Structures are given as C-alpha cells and as structure tokens.
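Thought: the user wants the 3D structure for the chain below. I'll pass the sequence to the structure tool as-is, report back what it returns, then summarize two notable features.
Action: structure_tool
Action Input:
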Amino acid sequence: MDSKVPLLSRRTFLTSAAILVTTTASVVHGRTFHQGMPWAPGAADPPAQVRPGPWAFFTSDEAATMEAIVDRLIPPDDGGPGGKDAGCAVFIDRQLAGPYGRSDGLYTLPPFMPGSSTQGYQNPDSPGGRYRAGLKALADHIRQSQSGKTLRELSTVDQDKLLSTLEDGSIKLKDIDAKAFFAMLLQDTQQGFFADPIYGGNRDMAGWKLVGFPGARYDYRDWVERHNERYPLPPVSIMGRTDWVSKG
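Observation:
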C-alpha cells in the first residue's frame, strides 16, 4: 500500500466488513409442539457483559501495541472513533482470554499440513498462542530495525508502512507467517468494531451508528422495504441502551 494513502479507508472497510460480520445464513427446520411452549422462563444463557478493568490476556506492552494497530486498521475520522476508542483491542483481549483464544471446540490434533483457504486453520497453535508469538516477533523486528523503538512510538506513517509489509507478507518475522498474522489481526479488529457492545468492542455502538445498523431492536419490519433511506432510530445492544436505564 502507498504510505501516502490511509491504510484502509473507512468506506472501503465498512462495505467489505459490515456484511461479513452482521449477516449469517441459516436453515430453519419446522417443528410442531403440543400442550406447552417450546421454551421455559429464565432458561436463556446470555453472554456475560464485558466490564471495564485490567487486560485479561495481553500484557501492558502487548495491549499498547494492539491499541496502536487497531487504530491504524480503523483510523478515527469525522465519521466516528477509530479502533482504539471503539474498544477493538478490549474485544480481542477478552476473546483471547476465553474459548476462542484456547481453540475450544476446534480440532487441533495432527496430522498438520498446508491447506487451502476453504479448509480453515491447519496448525496446532491456538489463536492465543499465535497472538503471543506474533506480537513478540513483531516487537523484536521493530526494536532491531527502528533503533529500539516500539510500534506505538513510531509515526502513523511508519506504522502504516509496517502494517503494509505485514499485509503483503514482505516483512520477515521469526517463525511467523506475517501475512496470516495480519489477516487474523484485521478479521478480529473488524469483528470488534461491529460485534454487539456486550463483548467489549463497538463502544457506544459506534460501528453500528456508522452504517445505520439497528442492532438488536425487536422489530423494524416497517423499514425492510424502504431502500436507500437511512434508518432513523438509534441502534440497540443486547444489553439495551444506557438512556433506557432509570436514573432514579
């Protein structure tokens, strides 16, 4: 990428990522129930809300590096906050401290071999292990090539240049596939920007406001067929909205 151009324009980012993160495909199978409802009160298992607090996975140095990275992948502009203020690093931190970071539910046993892009990850390292090794290798490279500096101490122009070398794989990191590491950073940052705020990212629903996504509103059928019109109501999280909470 040209260092004179922002690493990723907000409009390009939104059009490529919003659909990926906020849409799913599913198959619905009909069932018939007799003498009762197919659910019981209080039986839901909602996700735990991420609370402000210390880093759960990252060290302080890793966290500072991650905040610098997500703020260049999604730079702040007149349209809204960047990745740091939107909580993307916090989202990634909490995900890595949980089942995602440990590869829970995934097959991680041998044999391991190069696979196609449609086969998913084909190595034994968990996402948590890949982040830890990748951030260390990146920090070592920067320290050796930038007179002992850290990523957050570089100018935004130099940060963009460095991330560009990660993206195209031209940078050489010890025992790390730079291109695959960048792809993971970008995907997790996108998810943090558009996921429900209950998970720690998309702070104040900044990502949803930017694209006009209504969030977890109960019903917006009246607007489904109204194309090319901006949805006028503010988005709603799984947690509701702070302005709905009684101040009394």
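Final Answer: Structure generated. The chain has eight helices and no strands. The two ends are 53 Å apart (CA to CA).
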